[in-house]
């Protein structure tokens, strides 16, 4: 989060400082050409700030830059008072002032993807800030080229006419709404969705919903995805053929939650979930976006849902261990369908030569209590793995870059692996190359795992292969009590004092091979591999149609290996 703050402060400083500098150079010096070039650079800075801070208000900066450009334009023409340039200034000032309100009004409109509707007004309203910035930039270039003021006026009137059309349409929607609701609402009523996936999260969290989309599609019923932040509309829509709708307000939710809906699914405990929970005609089901022993995996907010789908009995025990009293009938054990394509190891992995090791450091969390990140001590770990001839797949958490210190530590690890690859030819995977692999691909390629406390360990557990878990806290002997999944792995202390011992057990002797299978059943359910995901699908269909009774799943055949193997 500190990295995000640094980016926002940097963007703010560049936008404001650039605007002031450009205006001063044009207005107070004779370096008109330099001032106009600085104005273009300042406009680029304001555009970047709007990317970093979507709600940024650049009215003051844009006004300063536009004023400087117009002064520079008048100097370049050197023709005294020019009515066309004066008219350009008036229209441009109006555009600068109305862009923010129009964008805010457009952000209150429903937007949709994968639906046969065209809603151009909200998109144009959202892009008006960039359009005005581009217009001011064009005026600066026109001034440098010495083009007549009539050219500037024509371009400004064109953007002004577009803004006026947007304003009129937004006003019509607000004061004279269609009796049948918006075009999106009408299209959804025709689509007849039976369930909705409600999603709200910080930027960069779309993985939480995209991991579930293939399984929601396999339910075989029409559905809709509702996102509450506009930046998720495009990436989520690209991951599914189902309709995806951006609902900015609770009023817009009233339109989108059409009568055919029966169930609402959730993948996290976002605060905006409460906006959807209020619709009592729906059955509300929490899916989670991972299963781990992290504190957030036993969130007391889970109690507000009608059903809590969990991977295994260990998740239910986790809530009880945290002192959270939730009625047993709310829990439904469905396994973790995302692991179905993970290859299960049929025999213990012992005496590995030149192994492939997957290393998955997590991020630092929102607060110190949730900081399980091992990146500060990871260089020692990786060097020892390389000494053993290991090929490393390094997959960092998507939020790692939000912490500047973590980002620097990760960069050093990338440099270390790059140097070893150049020296030995081993095919280490990290950075963009590792991110192109799915987690399933990474698990299937690796012989062993070293991970921080995270949901990756639960997914890896399905493979039956050995793993180590880093203890980055101060729990000592209580670490396994707090994180029981670590009991079936090898605990690596934060000072790395037991690193050699852990690597011998992880890669050579693997004494916990049989214990892992019992842990696997507790954490991921005791379901047959050839129909593993069907357990979730059957549970979801049962919520959609309580009268439907699926056939009982066959019991798993037992552990794939024994201690005698």
Automatic annotation (TrEMBL):
Native source species: Micromonospora andamanensis
Protein name: CDP-Glycerol:Poly(Glycerophosphate) glycerophosphotransferase
Highest taxon above the source species: Bacteria
Lineage, top ranks: Bacteria, Bacillati, Actinomycetota, Actinomycetes, Micromonosporales
Sequence intervals crossing the membrane: 21-48, 84-103, 124-144, 150-171
Keyword terms of this UniProt record: Membrane, Transmembrane, Transmembrane helix
Signal sequence annotation: none
One Pfam family of this chain: Glyphos_transf
């Amino acid at each position: 989060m500190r990295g995000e703050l640094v980016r926002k402060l940097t963007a703010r400083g560049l936008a404001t400082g650039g605007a002031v500098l450009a205006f001063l150079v044009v207005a107070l010096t004779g370096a008109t050409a330099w001032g106009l070039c600085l104005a273009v650079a300042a406009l680029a800075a304001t555009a970047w700030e709007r990317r970093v801070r979507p709600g940024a208000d650049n009215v003051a900066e844009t006004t300063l830059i536009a004023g400087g450009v117009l002064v520079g334009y008048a100097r370049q023409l050197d023709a005294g008072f020019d009515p066309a340039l004066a008219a350009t200034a008036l229209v441009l000032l109006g555009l600068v002032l109305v862009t923010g309100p129009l964008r805010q009004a457009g952000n209150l409109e429903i937007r949709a993807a994968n639906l046969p509707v065209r809603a151009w007004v909200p998109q144009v309203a959202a892009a008006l800030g960039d359009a005005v910035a581009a217009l001011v930039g064009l005026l600066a270039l026109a001034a440098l080229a010495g083009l007549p003021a009539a050219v500037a006026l024509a371009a400004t009137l064109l953007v002004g006419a577009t803004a006026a059309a947007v304003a009129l349409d937004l006003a019509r929607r607000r004061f004279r709404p269609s009796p049948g609701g918006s075009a999106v609402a009408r299209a959804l009523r025709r689509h007849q969705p039976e369930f909705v996936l409600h999603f709200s999260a910080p930027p960069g969290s779309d993985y939480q919903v995209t991991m579930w989309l293939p399984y929601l599609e396999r339910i075989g019923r029409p559905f809709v995805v509702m996102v509450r932040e506009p930046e998720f509309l495009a990436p989520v829509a690209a991951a599914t053929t189902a309709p995806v709708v951006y609902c900015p307000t609770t009023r817009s939710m009233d339109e989108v939650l059409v009568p055919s809906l029966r169930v609402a699914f959730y993948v996290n405990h976002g605060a905006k979930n409460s906006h959807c929970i209020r619709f009592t005609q729906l059955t509300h089901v929490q899916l989670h976006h991972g299963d781990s022993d992290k504190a957030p995996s036993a969130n007391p907010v889970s109690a507000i849902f009608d059903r809590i789908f969990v991977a295994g009995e260990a998740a239910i025990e986790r809530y009880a261990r945290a002192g959270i009293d939730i009625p047993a009938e709310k829990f439904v054990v469905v396994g973790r369908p995302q692991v179905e394509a993970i290859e299960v190891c049929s025999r213990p992995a012992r005496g590995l030569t030149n192994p492939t090791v997957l290393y998955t450091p997590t991020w630092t969390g929102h607060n110190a209590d949730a900081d399980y990140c091992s990146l500060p001590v990871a260089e020692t770990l990786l060097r020892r793995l390389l000494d053993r001839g290991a090929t490393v797949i390094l997959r960092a958490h998507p939020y790692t870059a939000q912490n500047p210190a973590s980002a620097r530590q990760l960069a050093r690890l990338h440099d270390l692996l790059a140097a070893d690859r150049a020296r030995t030819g081993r095919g280490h995977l990290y950075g963009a190359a590792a991110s192109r692999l799915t987690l399933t691909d990474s698990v299937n390629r690796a012989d062993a795992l070293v991970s921080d406390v995270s949901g990756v360990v639960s997914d890896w557990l399905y493979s039956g292969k050995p793993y180590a878990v880093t203890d980055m806290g101060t729990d000592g002997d209580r670490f396994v009590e707090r994180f029981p999944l670590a009991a079936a792995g090898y605990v690596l202390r934060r000072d790395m004092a037991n690193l050699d011992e852990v690597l011998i057990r992880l890669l050579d002797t693997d004494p916990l091979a049989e214990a892992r299978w019992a842990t696997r059943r507790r954490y991921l359910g005791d379901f047959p591999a050839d129909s593993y995901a069907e357990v979730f699908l059957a549970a979801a269909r049962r919520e959609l149609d309580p009268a439907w009774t699926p056939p009982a799943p066959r019991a798993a055949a037992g552990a794939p290996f024994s201690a005698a193997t």
